[in-house]
Write a structure and sequence with these properties.
2 helices, 12 strands, six-stranded mixed β-sheet, 142 residues, binds zinc ion, two-stranded antiparallel sheet, mainly beta
């Protein structure tokens, strides 16, 4: 499966992706031998695969946060997670200081050059180097 922008039809993926379950979409990345011995690792999304997430709605109450009177609804949009390594790097915007420690983090908005909002970026050093594409913003091409 490839992904294209649903608006301008630009191809976003650089390799064909196969579906995997969420729990099989990551691997442990060790930065050096010492880290390996201590089992100190980063989680990184595998290339060549995708995993989907359904939309959900979660209530976040004062009981959860410990903050009195707080109640928030957290909405998660349906999406398709793909590794940065499987995406055409030319479409990822150049990193701007202030939106992460060394790369786009915490789900910064990912826009196509046609301005279509494609999804969210989780690319910083402490994240899993994945991009979440909103289901409605991309075409699945087989
Ligand atoms: Zn586009
Ligand atoms: Zn960083």
């Amino acid at each position: 499966m490839h992904l294209n922008c649903s608006k301008c039809k630009k191809r976003l993926t650089k390799e064909s992706l196969r579906p995997v379950k969420m729990e099989n979409s990551f691997f442990k990345e060790y930065l050096c031998e010492e880290d390996k011995e201590e089992d100190f690792y980063n989680i990184r999304m595998k290339s060549g695969v995708f995993t989907t997430i359904k939309s959900s709605k979660k209530g976040w109450s004062s009981k959860d946060s410990g903050i009195k009177g707080l109640y928030q609804i957290i909405k998660e949009k349906a999406g398709i997670f793909v590794s940065e390594d499987s995406i055409d790097e030319a479409i990822i915007p150049e990193f701007k200081v202030g939106y992460g420690c060394c790369n786009w983090n915490m789900g910064q908005t990912f826009k196509c050059e046609c301005n279509n909002i494609l999804g969210e970026m989780y690319l910083d050093c402490f994240e899993d180097k994945s991009i979440k594409f909103y289901t409605q913003s991309v075409d699945r091409v087989y």
